[in-house]
Amino acid sequence: MSSISSAIIPTKFACSMIKVAEAQGHDIGSILKAAEMPFDPRSPDQDLPEYISADLYNRLYQRIMWTLQDESFGMLPQIKSPLGSFRMTCLMIIHCDSLGDAMVRGNEFSDFQQALIGHTPTKKRRLYTETPDVAVFELPSYRMVNDELTSDGILASAHILSAWRRFCGWLIGNAITLQEVNLPGETPENLSRYQKLFNSPISFGSDYAQFKFSSHYLKARIVQNEDSLKTFLRNAPYALLAEEVSSTNNIITRMRKHIGSEFTKDFPSVEEMAGLLNMSVSTLRRRLNKEDTTYQKFKDTTRRDAAIHYLKQPELKINAISALMGYDEPSVFHRSFKKWTSMTPGEYRIKLNQQDDAEEASA
By C-alpha distance, which of 126, 226, 210 is closest to 171? Predict the structure, then answer.
């Protein structure tokens, strides 16, 4: 996930939320003033920017969320989400072992929440395997939404699918590559907007909004915990909707996506990585040189960052972290970690605990 200072949100998201609040009779002027919005998206004479900062969007979102008492990001006004719904869903699934278990539990809890407030779907949210290699995630269907299908409604479904895809990727520490996206309605004129959301083949005219992905992701281990969830929730919803300001062609970013969060297997060789990136070894080395690094430094930095991430989870013993990092012998992990940080894993964990204690004391 991007940091909130380096992310942007499509202005259309803000406009959609404002329309929802305005349709329900709320004072939009007061909302915009409280959110310190520098312009009024309703002004017909205003040349609106295509994007706004994630920080500005968060302020607006928080203000409208509390005004509407609805946590659905203003995407589907017919189907409200009580405040705290997303947090409770996260807490229900964060301790699952695998992504597949988490998605099933999240679906069950979401459908239960909607039924409690009278929004029983005509077809519930589903996760199923179409073939042994292909899994399908499908949004619920509501009669009132289908009867009033609009371009905004289709776009809302697309953004919800995209948000769930990003959230699932966050859970396992690895971006999920989609094989196909199916959406209801007719093919829109602004197809590029949808392609930018998913970067995968998209078809329209489907009975349900769904995406298909490799079933191997369902077995991926959940790497987040309640501590990392607190940080994630502080930045919601930008973390699910934001687009990076920096180029997605950054070579380090692209390599990290191929590595993912599975460190029990050997890293790809430089030749294998070049093949994954569709470039020659010499081109890859030249690109890395421009980033002032080498492939070996990239591997060491990636392993170091992953090890530090695990050390921040107090329930994980250091020997368990060694195994998660793919080391057969804990002593080898200790030597490697000391080479990366000049400290042993135990010393580094003590340092982290001292920093946490200092922060709590100054709070």
Answer: 226
For every residue of 83-119, DSSP letters joined together read: TTHHHHHHHHHTT-SBHHHHHHHHHHHHHHHHHHTT-
CA distances from residue 240 to 48, 54, 83, 210 in whole angstroms, order as listed: 23, 11, 17, 17
Q: Classify burial at 258, counting beta carbons within 10 Å of its beta carbon; exposed 0-12, middle 13-18, buried 19 or more.
A: middle
Helix (H, G, I), strand (E, B) or coil at 128: strand
Question: What is the rounded distance in angstroms from the CA atom of residue 68 to the CA atom of residue 72?
Answer: 10
The domains located in the chain, with CATH, are: 4-219 (no CATH), 248-362 (1.10.10.60)
**Is the pTM higher than 0.90?**
no
Q: Mean pLDDT, 10 residues at a time, over the chain (363 residues)?
A: 50 75 82 84 72 75 73 52 73 91 87 67 76 90 50 72 86 87 84 78 88 92 84 64 46 76 79 85 88 87 85 84 88 93 92 73 60
